[in-house]
From TrEMBL:
Keywords: Chemotaxis, Cytoplasm, Hydrolase. InterPro entries: CheB-like, CheB_C, Sig_transdc_resp-reg_Me-estase, Sig_transdc_resp-reg_receiver. The keyword Hydrolase applies. Residues 10-131 form the Response regulatory domain. Residues 161-342 form the CheB-type methylesterase domain. The active site is at residues 171, 198, 290. Its EC number is 3.1.1.61. GO terms for biological process: chemotaxis. It catalyses: [protein]-L-glutamate 5-O-methyl ester + H2O = L-glutamyl-[protein] + methanol + H(+). This is protein-glutamate methylesterase.
Length: 354
């Protein structure tokens, strides 16, 4: 995470539950740079009030009000008053994990999910939550439109072998991007997919339930020694690096890389060393540069390397770093990725790095 800037951050709260709203007000009062500019308990005239408040960040409840659709509200904000949005999970969940509404909110454009019952957090956890709010507020979000990114004219590309494994990395904005890709793939998709997604605590299990419900693929938390199967997606577990060799999952509790465990650089390096040109590496939306060094290693070993195109990318940090460094050989709009994964040869339609 980045260090907080010295510029005050204007935070809007849409939290109908009085207790949850008070807890967030108390949390934000611990940081003089987080200024609550708007407190809302209902969605009435939300867009107008957000624009007038000039908010930098919106914290919205997983349950924003009776009969209110979280997904519709977020979609409206992203279309008419775009700003970074984070979801506060409902306080009614016994295990404090996000529910299906939160997953749909991520799909609509929210960047992450925060714990809803923050009164139980210790000092370190509260500090990390404040840093997350600083990081989210600094992101440049894209205005959501119902249109498709422009495609480039077909381009020839060297034919490559069908991959034995595909590695994908994502961070902020990643859950929605991964959902958009995986929902289009068939149950018999022939190549195992390994994913490193940076999660907040308690997010992994509900994320897997969400993907399992919406996709035709088998979604699983990766286990050490687990065989790689067609039609399966393996997601790195909390606090473990993910890799693969000889058709099996390799987990590691080695030190964090760049502050991350799991790290996308660890995943891509493992695929480069063990599969070479028989692997593909893809970097999606996210802050920072996790995965870039590993993706460069993959490219040097002959693997196909792709970064999400800037058009429509929620957080153009990791993809930009991958392209500017030369680690990613191609840029591809998110909406085109399922088709190219299905083609599996990527012989046309790729955007070269700018």
């Amino acid at each position: 995470m980045t260090s907080p800037s010295s510029t005050p951050i204007r935070v809007a709260l849409l939290l109908p539950e009085a207790v949850q709203r008070q807890n967030f007000l108390e949390l934000l009062s611990d940081d003089p740079l987080l200024d609550v500019c708007l407190e809302l308990s209902s969605t009435d005239t939300l867009i107008d009030r957000l624009n007038r408040a000039r908010a930098d960040l919106l914290v919205i409840a997983e349950t924003p009000g009776p009969g209110a659709s979280l997904r519709s509200i977020i979609a409206a904000v992203m279309s008419h008053a775009p700003m970074p949005i984070v979801i506060a999970a409902t306080t009614h969940h016994v295990d404090q994990t996000p529910g299906p509404r939160a997953m749909e909110g991520l799909r609509a454009g929210a960047l992450t999910v925060l714990p809803g019952l923050i009164s139980n957090l210790d000092a370190h956890q509260r500090g990390q939550l404040l840093l997350t709010l600083h990081d989210m507020s600094a992101l440049k979000v894209v205005r959501r439109r119902h249109s498709h990114p422009p495609s480039s004219p077909p381009r020839s590309a060297r034919q490559r072998p069908t991959p034995e494994v595909i590695g994908i990395a994502a961070s902020s904005g990643g859950p929605a991007a991964l959902h958009q890709i995986l929902i289009e793939l068939p149950a018999d998709f022939p190549t195992p997919i390994l994913i490193v997604q940076h999660f907040t605590a308690g997010f992994l299990s509900p994320f897997i339930r969400w993907l399992s419900h919406d996709t035709r693929l088998h979604i699983d938390i990766a286990r050490d020694g687990q065989p790689l199967r067609p039609g399966c997606v393996y997601i790195a577990p909390d606090h473990h690096h993910l890799g693969a060799s000889q058709g099996k999952i390799l987990l590691s509790n080695a030190p964090a890389i760049g502050g991350f465990r799991p790290s996308a650089t660890h995943l891509f390096t493992s695929l480069a060393d063990n599969y070479g040109p028989r692997a593909w590496g893809i970097i999606l939306t996210g802050m920072g540069r996790d995965g870039v060094d590993g993706l460069m290693h993959m490219r040097h070993r002959g693997a196909l390397t792709i970064a999400q195109h800037e058009q429509g990318c929620a957080v153009y940090g990791m993809p930009r770093a991958a392209l500017e460094s030369g680690a990613a050989a191609h840029a591809l709009p998110l909406s085109h990725m399922p088709r190219h994964l299905l083609d599996r040869q990527l012989s046309h339609g790729l955007h070269p790095p700018d």
